[in-house]
Amino acid sequence: MTLEVKDLHVVVKKTGEEILKGVNLTIPTGQVHAIMGPNGNGKSTLVSTIMGYPAYEATQGTVTFNGESVLDKPVNERAKMGLFLGMQYPSEIPGVKNADFLRAAVNATMPAGKTMPVLQFMQRLNSAMELLQMPDDITDRYLNVGFSGGEKKRNEVLQMLMLQPKLAILDEIDSGLDIDAMRIVAKGINHLRSPQFSALLITHYERLLKYVVPDQIHIMVDGQIVDNGGPELADELEKNGYAKYEHEAKGDQ
Description:
Blueprint: E1 3-12, E2 18-27, E3 32-36, H1 43-51, E4 56-65, E5 68-69, H2 75-80, E6 83-86, E7 93-97, H3 98-108, H4 118-131, E8 142-143, H5 149-163, E9 167-171, H6 179-191, E10 198-202, H7 208-211, E11 216-221, E12 224-229, H8 232-240, H9 243-250
Parallel strand pairs: 3-10, 3-11, 6-9, 9-10
Antiparallel strand pairs: 1-2, 1-4, 4-5, 7-8, 11-12
GO molecular function, one term: ATP binding
Protein name: FeS assembly ATPase SufC
Family: Belongs to the ABC transporter superfamily. Ycf16 family.
């Protein structure tokens, strides 16, 4: 279940501004990759485009998953293919209980006409909540309403554990987390690591990658992947930042 992004160019539909300028990225099944880079250089645009966010339009290039194009599919079909996006800013949805949302989401990804048995759903939910150290009452609260920042991020990981996707894309899942919450979120991600699961982490922080060690790190600057490396690349960025990449992108000597 390999994700392949080839020469992807993406514009903002409303303004026509080009954000992605020829992104190339391959994530083989069973691997965890991370994308790092300065703010405003296209990381969130990339993951939003992969999942079908309507504000963006791909004008050139391809995105395939398991050899099948995803760009012409609606969001729900991409989810049924096994793609999952943990959002940077989870929305609050008053009136929809967390447990009801999770059950609807799980059933929506199952084959037509089938639903997960209630007992199996509850067993999976209880196990995931225990792993993430979430309070029992969180399933009865409205989705993300009144949740702390850490609770929202853990709830995104809870959704991932419930849906068990083939590829999880986590957009700054670590932002705003203290060290204890970071460890819990990382534990949830690592729990799914297997030869059948892959993940793409968008992060600014080297510390997350100490707990979820990636197979490869990619640096994105000015809408392009400009460098690739192993976990040691995060240490280099922690020391030196992105200055050299930004200078190279501008053509500075």
